[in-house]
Amino acid sequence: MTARHSAWSRTGRTAAALAAVAVLATACGTGDPDLPEPETPAAPEEFTAANVDAWLDATVPEMLEEAGIAGATVAVVGDGQVLTTRGFGFADVDGGVEVDPAETLFRPGSVSKVFTATAVMQLVEQGLVDLDADVSEYLDFDIPREFDEDLTLRHLLTHTGGFEERVSGLIAFEGTGAHLREALATDPPEQVFRPGTTPSYSNYGNALAGYIVERVAGVPFEEYIAVELLQPLGMDSSSFEQPLPADLADRMSNGYASADGPAQPFEHVGTPPAGALSATADDMAQFMLAQLGARPDGVELLDAATREQMYSPALDGGSLAEFAGAQRMTLGWFQEDQNGHRVVGHGGDTNWFHSHLNLYPDDGAGIFVSFNSSGTAGTETLGLRADLMAGFADRYFPGETEAAVAEGWSADDVAGTYYSSRGSESTFLSALGVFNTTEVTALDDGRLYFAADPGTQEPGVFEPVGGGVWREVGGDRTIAVRTEDGEVTGIVHDAAFTLLPLDVERELSAPLLAAAVAVLLLALLAWPAGAVYRRLRRRPGPGREGRVSRALVRVGAACAVLAIAGWVAIVVMAMSLQEPSAALIRTVQVVQLIAALGLIPAVVRFVGEIRRKAGWRAVTGTVVVFLALAAVADFAIEFHLLSPNISY
Question: Where does the UniProt annotation place the signal sequence (predicted)?
Answer without folding.
Answer: 1-27
